[in-house]
Amino acid sequence: MKKRILFLCTGNSCRSQMAEGFLRYLAGDRFNIYSAGFDPTNVHQCAVKAMKEIGIDISNQRSKSAQEFLGQQFDYVVTVCDNARQKYPIFPGKYKQIHWNLEDPAKVQGTDEEVMKAFGKTRDTIKQNVNNFIAENVVQSH
Q: Domain 3-137, what architecture?
């Protein structure tokens, strides 16, 4: 039985989308992976581009409202920003709550290169967090 995980963010446009993409790519065989936001927008094209740079395609993911998941049970709920942690809904059942306070690259202003650098930095932080999550929460079967 796969464990269920939900990544929560404000807009579900970049941080939670990248986290969903990473975990699906690295351990999608072990988890049912979802992401959502409190004020969903669209998947940010710079997030898609930053992930594509390292060979992960999130272009088919869609931005979803946290409302879609109320009443559902999860094994893990990960908030990826302080705003999501403050608005955090209560889900039924027992689950592990995890918080990653990640910078929002969508708020960076500057040249295209500066914006993409911010997305790359956030992407790399998320990759490390997802790898740590897998190491701590996946029982290796031998």
A: 3-Layer(aba) Sandwich (3.40)
What CA–CA distance (Å, rounded) separates 94 from 89?
A: 14
Alpha helix locations (H) across the chain? Answer: 15-27, 45-52, 82-87, 112-137
Task: Enumerate the domain spans of the chain.
Answer: 3-137
Cα 116 to Cα 1, 45, 64, 76, 108, distances in angstroms: 38, 10, 24, 30, 9
pTM over 0.70: yes
Read off the pLDDT of residues 10-68 as tens digits, 9 standing for 90 and up: 999 999 999 999 999 999 999 999 999 999 999 999 999 999 999 999 999 999 999 99
pLDDT per residue over 97-111, tens digit each? 999 999 999 999 999
